[in-house]
Every structure is written in structure tokens, then in C-alpha cells.
Automatic annotation (TrEMBL):
Residues 4-111 form the HIT domain. The active site is at residue 98. One of its GO terms (molecular function) is hydrolase activity. GO terms for biological process: nucleotide metabolic process. A motif (Histidine triad motif) lies at residues 96-100. This is HIT family hydrolase. It comes from Dyella japonica A8. The lineage of its organism: Bacteria, Pseudomonadati, Pseudomonadota, Gammaproteobacteria, Lysobacterales. It comes from the Bacteria.
Length: 151
């Protein structure tokens, strides 16, 4: 199946490029959810977060940070979202890893996740149990120990 982001990287589809590095490309999303909505993608085809190598993920994120600083200077937004989705259930529409960088304004209507109100805080013991379970499966190839729960 054709990948529109690979086509953009290859120059087969036009894009308004904002910045690039050796392995990452930032361009304006053709569907501007908010003014200044930028996508940052690896130049190589990588389907999702589960397939991306840590070094490449770092390069994509570093470019995303650079773009965020530029968006702050251009749009002067009071907020900003970094958004990355995986799988259809997560809202991923293009099967190529991408990071959305979106300048935000109060009541811009982009996200309605908490439209019905902010969820009540979860009990600490339930959160600690969940954190312990997640840590059991967290890969640590950088020598950094897993964080500990606070008592």
C-alpha cells in the first residue's frame, strides 16, 4: 500500500516543508486542525512507535522541539500539543510514525477529550499497582533503573 508520507519524503507529493535533519522531516499538515499544525516524520518508513528505533525517535523528537520553538515565535500560542497516535483505535490515520506539533489557543475546539469534565483522581494504591506492572515490562537498555513509586 502506498504511504503518503513516504511519497512526501521522496518528493512525489508536494508538501510545505518547515525543517529537516538527516533522518527526519517536518512539514505543515495539509489539514490544518489549528494554524501552524506541523507533522514531523522519520524519512524512512516506520509504521508506529513499536517499530521505531530509539535513536530515530530521538531525532524526530528533537526536530519536533525545534519546530515547537519556531511555532511559539510565529504564532505566540498560550499552549502547544505534541500528539502521536498508534493504531486505528489510537486514531492513527497514516501508518507511518508521525508527531503532530500543534500551537494551541484556549477554546480552539481541537480537543474535546475532557468535554464532560476532568476524571476524578484514581486511588494511589491502584496507580502504584499499575506502575509496578508496567515497570515489569519496561525495557531498560540504557542502564537507567526503573523509577520507584513514591510512598
Amino acid at each position: 500500500m502506498a504511504c503518503p508520507f513516504c511519497d512526501i519524503v521522496a518528493g512525489r507529493i508536494e508538501a510545505s516543508v518547515v525543517a529537516q535533519t538527516a533522518h527526519a522531516l517536518a512539514f505543515l499538515d495539509i489539514r490544518q486542525a489549528v494554524p501552524g499544525h506541523v507533522l514531523v516524520v522519520p524519512k524512512a518508513h516506520v509504521e508506529d512507535i513499536y517499530a521505531i528505533e530509539p535513536a530515530l525517535a530521538g531525532e524526530v523528537m528533537q526536530l519536533g522541539v525545534r519546530v515547537a520553538h519556531a511555532l511559539r515565535e510565529v504564532f505566540h500560542p498560550p499552549g502547544l500539543n505534541l500528539w502521536q497516535s498508534n493504531g486505528a483505535a489510537g486514531g492513527q490515520e497514516v501508518a507511518h510514525f508521525h508527531l503532530h506539533v500543534q500551537p494551541r489557543r484556549v477554546a480552539d475546539g481541537l480537543l474535546r477529550v475532557y468535554a464532560l469534565g476532568v476524571p476524578e483522581p484514581s486511588p494511589r494504591d491502584a496507580l502504584d499497582d499499575m506502575a509496578r506492572h508496567i515497570r515489569r515490562f519496561l525495557p531498560h537498555d540504557d542502564g537507567v533503573p526503573a523509577p520507584r513509586s513514591h510512598p
